[in-house]
Specification:
Structural class: mainly alpha
Strand order of the largest sheet: 1-5-6-4
Radius of gyration: 26 Å
Number of strands: 6
Number of helices: 31
Largest sheet: 4 strands, mixed
Bound molecules: 2-acetamido-2-deoxy-beta-D-glucopyranose
Strand content: under 5%
Distance between the termini: 45 Å
């Protein structure tokens, strides 16, 4: 449930048997016991799974269960309020609705990790009737039912007008619910991850911790019912196949390969030995022979044949996709209802109802604008006597120089040097923050940050903290060339004042933290802010301080070039994404546009385009978000009068709105300045 913010890599997700630092299983058990009125058991479950009161699961804190005290009465009150609430009459308390959403989301995720009969046994299916059906169509229909009711409740809910945070939270949730409603009722088949059934039946059993006998039985139940579950995946896949092009084959091949590995594991009896190992390791005794017999026969009668069947279906399908006569291009325009689908994706990822033509056009304008900014910096470099680049060169030659000069790159084997360099940059940034943020924001926004290196090709990414005892982490990718010129902007984006700042602020907010933990966040708001953070760093002098990681003949202006070349990549995304999905661009044309307009490495270009193909719309959120923050800044400046504009106040207004859709952000910020100092 960690949120990962990526700079240049496709969206990835991972499953985990832990949720907010406690075994999902135990959380489900606690909530369910509470539902059945067994508060004592609920309390004991939580107590015995957390060593101290202050380690109580973060999610329960989010549900208003005070960490201090750990009293069962509080668990009782909140969970009961959620479960039995004013269902029939419509709920009027927005906070209760948010809690309901959070719990619902948590249980829905829990179902992806644990088996249906177990959840049934726990009574969860009587709560809602649908936790046990994922990923069938029936399940999605029920999800739609839940969301429709939820939307009505939210719309009918009363918000005290003097609590702006609740108003924002309601708008944010309502917008998300509407998007989800459209997704679940119309577009769910197109979500490519359905193909990846292996994630739920593969080697995760070897990572699974069999902590007690109920969990052991649960696992066996999961294996016993896997045939039915995999049939659900197959049904989805049969419907989804018409949306696949040869450009999706890479992703399918990965699934096929993991399937083969998993089947081989089953043949070698590895699942049984992992089960055995985990059981004895955790329980201090051998599993009863009947349990092992049960597991073995569930594997041979249900899981293994089902996976073999699914593998065949995928292989045949890949063949059909490969040999189809008609391969128009990687875009969605050629698929059934593709244009409508793309409009939905634009709305989903930008929260604005923009046409692809409009985005394409402003993308081209912005590419031109950023290039002229680059040329301007090059002119200043050249005027200082440095002849490494010249403003009279074609843009491609300037960009190639940035890409091909060895001194502009870190030695990726020297991880300590890289981390040291990042710490120096953070030192510079932290000093500059007082120019742009209030003391309160700085204090809350600068929660402890880990810096790690990882051998991924992506330049870097940020992982949010999972709870109060965990820090956010900025990962630096050492799996490819790592540009010193870009590092400052990268730190500004992923760490401070970008993702880490925004995330720490959200996490310390009593209401917004609940939303962010239930993944009610908007890429356009988080990525837009972080791209704005890069630009802001350029404005307040972060690029102008020496850290001595470039040879002395190169001035600090090169860090500005690094930042601008990163902004250029994001502007290019607007053009290429919409080009692919609505203007019939071929894959080759997309690659060529990148090569001619950015200094991006060729392996990253391929990754970029694969991401547009498999996750349409997401890459638009960065620049669209940036433009909106800049537009708002200009409008506020005009409103209060340029001389009186206070940038710290403006940043507080934007950050303290939480992660909201752009129309909400706009009306909130403009509203704050209504009848302001002017
Ligand atoms: C395409 O859209 C129409 C109208 O909304 C709908 O009836 C149809 O089922 C859709 N087809 C697919 C494959 O999504
Ligand atoms: C970038 O990486 C490639 C291969 O990984 C290497 O050959 C090349 O020298 C690197 N370029 C720079 C400027 O470090
Ligand atoms: C989080 O940061 C604090 C302060 O820097 C540090 O004391 C603590 O050990 C860190 N926690 C983790 C889990 O890294």
């Amino acid at each position: 449930m960690l949120l990962i913010f990526l700079l240049l890599l496709p969206y990835t997700s991972s499953t985990s048997s832990q949720l907010y630092g406690v075994k999902t299983w135990k959380l489900v058990e606690a909530v369910t016991s509470a539902y059945h009125g067994d508060w004592d058991h609920s309390y004991r479950t939580l107590q015995s799974n957390t060593r101290k009161c202050f380690e109580l699961p973060y999610s329960l804190k989010l549900l208003n269960i005070e960490v201090e005290g750990c009293t069962p009465g509080k668990i009782n009150r909140v969970v009961h309020r959620w479960l039995s609430g004013n269902r029939q009459n419509g709920n009027t308390d927005v906070e209760v609705l948010i809690d309901e959403y959070v719990i619902g989301d948590m249980l829905f995720s829990a179902d992806t990790l644990y088996n249906q009969p177990l959840i049934q046994k726990l009574g969860l299916s009587t709560v809602s009737g649908y936790w046990d059906c994922w990923p069938s169509r029936d399940c999605y229909n029920k999800m739609v039912g839940r969301l429709e009711r939820f939307q009505l409740d939210l719309e009918a809910s009363q918000v005290e007008l003097d609590n702006p945070d609740l108003i924002l939270a309601r708008e944010s949730l309502l917008f998300k619910v509407k998007l989800q409603l459209e997704e679940y009722s119309k577009w769910y088949v197109r979500r490519l991850e359905y193909v990846n059934v292996v994630a739920y039946y593969g080697d995760d059993v070897c990572r699974m911790s069999i902590v007690d006998e109920t969990v052991a039985e649960g696992w066996i139940q999961k294996v016993k019912t896997s045939d039915e579950k995999i049939r659900n995946f197959e049904e989805f896949f049969r419907e989804a196949e018409i949306f696949y092009t040869p450009h999706h084959l890479g992703q399918m091949l990965e699934t096929v390969e993991s399937l083969r590995t998993t089947i081989q594991m089953l043949q070698e009896g590895r699942l049984v030995s992992c089960f055995w190992y985990s059981y004895t390791h955790n329980l201090g005794k051998d599993p009863p022979p009947s349990l092992i017999q049960d597991l073995t026969s569930a594997i041979s009668s249900s899981l293994q044949p089902a996976l073999e069947r699914y593998l065949q279906i995928l292989e045949h399908s890949m063949n059909r996709i490969l040999t189809a006569r008609h391969h128009p291009g990687p875009g969605v325009w050629d698929t059934v209802n593709g244009t409508e689908f793309y409009r939905y994706r634009i709305l989903y990822h930008t929260t604005l109802d923009l046409t692809p033509e409009y985005i394409h056009k402003i993308g081209q304008e912005e590419v031109g604008r950023v290039k002229s900014e680059i040329r301007e910096v090059v002119r200043r470099i050249s005027e200082s006597g440095d002849k490494s680049v010249s403003p009279s060169w074609p843009m491609q030659m300037i960009l190639a120089t940035l890409r091909n000069t060895d001194q502009f790159f870190y030695d990726i084997k020297n991880e300590e040097y890289i981390k040291g360099s990042v710490r120096k940059i953070l030192g510079i940034i932290n000093k500059k923050m007082t120019q742009a943020f209030t003391k309160e924001i700085i204090a809350k926004g600068s929660a402890a940050l880990n810096i790690e290196t990882e051998s991924t090709a992506s330049m870097g990414y940020y992982v949010e903290s999972a709870g109060p005892d965990d820090n956010g982490t900025f990962y630096i990718g050492t799996g490819g060339n790592l540009s010193k010129l870009m590092m400052r902007a990268l730190v500004c984006h992923e760490a401070i004042p970008g993702h880490h700042y925004q995330s720490s602020l959200l996490k310390s907010h009593p209401i917004f933290s609940k939303l962010s933990n239930a993944r009610v966040q908007y890429s356009v708001s988080t990525e837009g802010w972080s791209l704005y953070a890069e630009k802001l760093c350029g404005e307040i002098g972060v690029m102008d301080e020496a850290t001595h990681d470039l040879p002395s003949q190169y001035s600090m202006l090169y860090y500005h070039l690094g930042r601008l070349s990163m902004q250029l990549i994001r502007a290019v995304r607007l053009v290429v994404e919409t080009g692919i999905h609505t203007q019939y661009w071929s894959y080759e044309r997309a690659v060529s546009f990148f090569e001619h307009n950015t200094d991006l490495r060729s392996d990253l270009i391929v990754q970029e385009i694969d991401r547009y193909v498999t996750n349409p719309g997401q890459a638009l959120s960065y620049y669209i978000g940036l433009m909106e923050v800049l537009k708002l800044r200009e409008e506020v400046k005009e409103k209060v009068g340029r001389g009186r504009f206070d940038i710290k106040q403006f940043h507080s207004a934007v950050l303290l709105a939480g992660s909201v859709p752009l129309p909400t952000l706009r009306s909130h910020v403009i509203g704050l300045y209504q009848g302001g100092p002017d």
